[in-house]
Amino acid sequence: MTLTLDVSYWQLVAMIVDYVIKFVVIGIVPSNRRPSSANAWLLLILLLPIIGLPLYLLMGSDFFNRRRHRIQQRANAMITDVHLDIPDIPPEAQLSPDKEAIVRLHRALTGFPAVDADVRRLWSDYELAFRRIVELVDAAEDYIGIEIYALALDATTLPVFDALERAVSRGVHVRLLFDHIGSRKYPGYLRMTRRLNRSGIDWHLMLPLQPWRGRFRRPDLRNHRKVIIVDGRAALMGSMNMIDRGYLMRNHRRAGRQWIDVLVELEGPIVTSLESMFAVDWYTESGEAIELLAPRRLGVDKPGEHILQLIPSGPGYQAEPNLRMFNTLIHHARERLILCSPYFVPEDSLLEAVTTACYRGVRVDLLVGEKADQFMVTHAQSSYYEQLLRAGVHIWQFPAPYVLHTKFAIADPGLSTNIAVVGSSNMDMRSFTLNYENSLFVADGSLLRELETLGGTYMNVSRELTLEQWSRRPWYRRYIDNVMRLTSALQ
After folding, report:
1. d(CA 66, CA 9)
2. What one-character-per-residue DSSP string does 377-411 give?
3. Quick one: how far is CA 325 from the chain centroid?
4. Which one of 156, 335, 465, 484 has the minimum C-beta count within 10 Å?
5. CA atoms within 13 A on the CB side of 483
6. pTM for this prediction
7. Nearest-angstrom CA–CA distance, 312 and 223
8. For the segment 235-278, what is each residue's pLDDT rounded down to a tens digit?
9. If we measure between CA atoms, which residue out of 166, 121, 174, 165 comes closest to residue 146?
């Protein structure tokens, strides 16, 4: 009889605790969160509370990142102060009212103005891009700043490591940031860090996950930025990581995967904008403050010819500048859109913007890989294909085993209204909410034509997916796609 009462008592306690948890999370989870994300978290917590609640505390809340957010907010204020006397648009620029409005939007969201630039080259050949990195590093006289998501020591990157060590030996201050989780998984990580320690390179992990050292944060956050700055005069940025083109992992080698990427080489005041972003991230991880300088209008061949604006984004930016940037570009299009992203898992507003563009007569070309390198992303992405195809989107699949890793978007290529975005950001909810990203808004200049040409080159080797073909996929593929679509909303 006593045993029965004890069991009943603990059952009652467990039931009360269960209902209290559910009652509390219903009022907490939706706070400052989009409905799709809130519903996904609530579904997981209510159905599987033992799994869902710990996952939410680790990955769904900002409890572990309040310090980082405070640092980001202070650093953003520093950026705003540095740019106080810089106009939204250079005096020589001749932009339409629509483009000026977009620039002002980005300035309000990030603090960065549109500035002059010289676009030296769009590097789309993997091997040639690495040769150029080595040339720029060997030409450095004062300092180098590198911020990269995935870094590895391999046959492809070895010349860069050698060049960085040569730079240190001649007195150049080399600062290096790389994402901890983004780099830790690749072979030779410990060998690489030991070499960095011996080299004299000043390096730090971004978003380190080291609880044994008192360094803990949300394990799903990544610093996905990719930028190389040399002496404040030249910079490279884009989608390319510093790793072998096959990404070293055994499964990639078996599949024969090769990554397709781009880097944009820049000079002029836009380099100072990139330095400001780098300085914020360096301060966040190292505690060392780098003096921030206002964009310098020096070294530009033709002022007003190339007008670019840096758009950084990440958890520290509460207004989601990345998502608003892509949505604004899509709504701006009058005749045509070219979207290129390896991971296209759109947030609700982006999906509506793309399909609405089709319904108002804009031709939309979406470039994706035939097969992505990640199982969950592959299926989450393809769960949107039917809806996109029915709206009229032309989906182009870049042939496997190549991984189309380039990220850009163009509105109205070839027209006077054309604008573009290129950088590190995918068009997925992770890039909009969880990743620290860097993108370039291109308001004017030859980079618009170069990106249009690049998009045409990609389409020429891709296969267009039709609604008829996609409708023949098996039932189990539909099921897996839909399940993975739910996981993409867990932000």
Report:
1. 39
2. HHHHHHTTHHHHHHHT-EEEEEPTTEEE---EEEE
3. 13
4. 335
5. 8
6. 0.88
7. 11
8. 999 999 999 999 999 999 999 999 999 999 999 999 999 999 99
9. 174
